[in-house]
Amino acid sequence: MTQQNDFDKILLAQSQTTSQTLFTTEVPGFEWSDGVSYELGMKFQSAKSGQITAIRHWKAVNETGNHIGRIWSATGSILGSVTFSNETSSGWQQQDLSTPVSILANTTYIVTVSCNSYFGVTNNALASPVVNGDLSSVADGNNSVFGSLNSFPTNSYQNSNYFRDIVFVVGNSLTKVSGDNQTGTAGSALANPFVVKATDSNGNPQSGVTVNFAITSGGGSVSSTSAVTGNDGQASTVLTLGTTAGITNTVSATASDIGSVTFSARANPANTNAIYLENQKPGTTDWRIPQVGQSDIAGYATATSVNKGGSLPIKVSLAQAGNYTIDVYRLGYYGGQGGRLILSSGQLNGITQPACNFDSSTRTVSCENWSTSYTLQVGNDWTSGLYIAKLTDQRSGSKSQVVFVVRHDSERSDILFQSSFNTLQAYNLSGGYSLYPEQSTGGQRGFKLSYDRPVAQHSTLTGSNPYNNTILSWEYNMVRWLESQSYDISYVTNVDVHANPSLLQQHNVFLSVGHDEYWSLEEFNSVKTSSINKAFFSGNSVYQRVRFENSSMGVANRVMVCYKDASDPVAPTNKFRSPENNKPESALKGNMYIGGRWRNFFSDGFDFVVKNSTHPYYANTNLNDGDKLSGLVGFEWDAINLNASPSGLVVLGESIQPQNFDQAELEGFPAGTDPRISQAVCFTSASGAKVFSTGSIQFMWGLDSEGVSGPREDDRVKQMVVNILADMGARPLTPGSGIIVP
Q1: What span, in angstroms and rounded, lies between the C-alpha atoms of 180 and 23?
Q2: CA 233, CA 208: separation in Å to the nearest integer?
Q3: For residue 203, is it left (φ>0), alpha (ψ between -120 and 50) or beta?
Q4: What's the burial of 12, exposed, middle or buried (CB within 10 Å: 0-12/13-18/19+)?
Q5: Which one, of 538, 335, 315, 546, lies nearest residue 435 by Cα?
Q6: Rounded alpha-carbon distances, angstroms, from residue 586 to 237, 531, 593, 696
Q7: Any idea what the Cα angle at residue 240 is, between residues 235 and 243, rounded to 5°?
Q8: Closest by CA position to 418, among listed 461, 386, 449
Q9: What is the pLDDT of residues 106-154, one digit of tens each?
Q10: What is the mean pLDDT of the chain?
């Protein structure tokens, strides 16, 4: 009897150490490539707790390059990863994890392996659970997960099987009990310990297990580097956070021959600001919408901006009367998601609004005659920023966007970020008329544009015609980076600075970003004479003068007027550099528009070439004269006008377009000026304000290139911009790794 019991124990031990995989002899139905790199994966569970010891994937015949396997929690935390080595040309590949990953019974996890181009797939193969031993796939209708390379995948297509798998062993597990995802002040001890628990395959606590704790990133220290589990199977340590604010500190807990888990905690700055606190909240990418030519739903806000605590009427029209929803998002960093859901309206009843009014003499389209559909109540706790209201027609699923700014008029922040709503309106094709004949109906442009109309054709990110998308094409990237660094920022539009120039005096830096072409004379004069420091991360800026008129119902600043010549009966709404205005933009920002190339908006551009690299703005960049920063000049650029240059001008970049340009604007420049040259400059104005101008629309892609063809992020650019803004009185609370804040 004793021998039989011993034999049973041996069999039990063998069964508990036998490895399991979900797939055995299965192979993909076909191989596929759309030329895009992906993170491909599968959701799975185990009926018993244990450890994942290796990751498997089917390699397509034409697939090349390195592959990284990852185990994720259901919420997107990486639990373990491995880089495959010594792969065969195709077929199943397997790579052991250096430390097994412990998993709990009946808990969803995701296994992924990167794909560079080609992958095997069988459509609808995961519509029902695949079960093998203790392992099973999760048939929740969203199992065939895929996403951007090296990112947590959340997309699904036809319940496809991408043939990602694990090697699993039933046995003891190490799991987290409490203490994960805390926050605390940098350099201080966390309030709660990190607690782990060792259990056997049946979930019983295991005492006497040695658990080693180690800092894996972020610095800091742990009070116990080694602890032994008690009768409850638990062991713990306390983390003292590293001294660098704004980063995540991670601690591994490892039990030999069992597995490891990782704890995370964020180190907050001792003094926070609204932007930092806002970006600690959960983000989402749901603010994005597909690019569409026409939509079954459209709307607009009755003001370009609203102060905190105010209200903003929104007018919406549906192609067919029915239900719709409004979801309001704030743009920011939010851990790379780019936005945060602020408010959802729930189901609303929508109508088809009457035809918009049309003034044939000025070709002005105005939908002011629409009735108010929804009034957005802006909370006092909303953070100033760029906002998107996503409109969704419940009948057709069609979507469109309404953009607006939430201000904080009493706030004294470091940076005043001006959103280029005038330029957005100038290129707005809604109703058939913009300020550009080549885009307007019958080649006849408008002379007066109403803000009381939808903005045509917003898209998810860059990649579409930027004329209709100035915010998402350039400003979005600058916002992402600034907010990832926790700069102290308030947001306004051109209309706000035009109507209330006193806003300038509450901040250290005025920021113009991207394509900021259309300004009023009032805004020009206010910004020029103000002592606020000025940073123009923009090109073709302050080029066309506009003026504002009341709407037909008497609402101020709702009609933007720009004749682009001297025929305006009220004021010369043409170029600031024209003889009638005699206010060349270089008097404000040191350089002025000279050329453009817009054949391939988001893959084009030429290199920024460094000059005067000993200037303090290049400190800690290791850049030298003649060094190049890839693809940061375009699609329009500015240069120094020797006929109208402020004194003390320093050239920081001098670049030349090596390809053909599409437009040269040489009015006011000396004869013989080369329109291919772009120059970045800085100087101190007569008011004492420091001024910097990149001379390029797309320079900010060196800070963040989310959605841009051919990523152009460069740590040297980031250091340069930190230097510039610090000199102007704005410093990041949470600078990126390796950045030195002056």
Answers
A1: 33
A2: 8
A3: left
A4: exposed
A5: 546
A6: 60, 17, 9, 14
A7: 155
A8: 386
A9: 899 999 999 999 999 999 999 999 999 999 999 988 888 999 999 999 9
A10: 92
Spatial distance between the Cα atoms of 705 and 426, rounded to a whole number of angstroms: 25
**pLDDT tens per residue, range 402-457:** 999 999 999 999 999 999 999 999 999 899 999 999 889 999 999 999 999 998 75
The tokens describing 44, both together, are 């799975």
Helix (H) or strand (E) run with residue 722 in it? helix 715-727
How do residues 235-250 score in pLDDT, each as one tens digit? 999 999 999 888 889 9
> What residue type is 666 in one-letter code?
L
SS3 638: strand
Measure the CA–CA gap between 382 and 370, rounded to whole angstroms: 28
* Contact in structure between 153 and 116 (CB atoms under 8 Å): no
pLDDT of residue 571 exceeding 50: yes
CB within 8 A of 400, min separation 6: which ones? 289, 292, 295, 297, 298, 299, 390, 391, 454, 458
Question: Do 313 and 366 touch, CB atoms closer than 8 A?
Answer: no
Which is more confident, 189 or 258? 189
The residue assigned the tokens 């069609």 is 398
For tokens 């044939």, the residue is 360
Report which of 10, 114, 5 is spatially closest to residue 69, judged by C-alpha positions. 114
Residue 102: its pLDDT value, please? Answer: 87
Question: 222 - beta bridge partners?
Answer: 239
The answer to whether 111 and 166 are in contact (CB under 8 A) is yes
Distances (CA, A) of 526 to 11, 493, 532, 681, 690: 85, 14, 10, 21, 15
Q: In 3D, which of 387, 392, 459, 389 has the Cα closest to residue 419?
A: 387
Angle at 255 between CA 250 and CA 261, to 5 degrees: 35
CA 454 – CA 353 distance, rounded (Å)? 12
Q: Which of 291, 247, 302 is nearest to 269 (CA)?
A: 247
Q: CA-to-CA distance for 299 and 403, rounded, in angstroms?
A: 10
Which class for 34: exposed (0-12), middle (13-18), buried (19 or more C-beta within 10 A)? Answer: exposed
Distance CA 717, CA 19 (A): 50
Q: pLDDT tens for residues 247-290?
A: 889 999 999 878 889 999 999 998 999 999 999 999 999 998 87
Q: Which two tokens stand for residue 169?
A: 């062993």
In eight-state DSSP terms, residue 474 is: I
Strand ranges inside 568-662, DSSP E:
592-596, 606-609, 628-633, 636-639, 650-656
Question: Rounded distance, CA 646 to CA 683, Å?
Answer: 8
